[in-house]
Amino acid sequence: MCEGTRMPVHQIVRMLANGDTVDSLLAEYPFLSREDIMASLDYAGLAEEQVTPIEVANLWWMRVPVDENIPRMTVEGLRALGQDVRDIRGTSNQGIADPDLWGLALAESRTLITTDKGFTECRLAPHYGIVIGRLR
Question: What is the dihedral of CA 84, 86, 87, 90, to 10 degrees?
Answer without folding.
Answer: 130
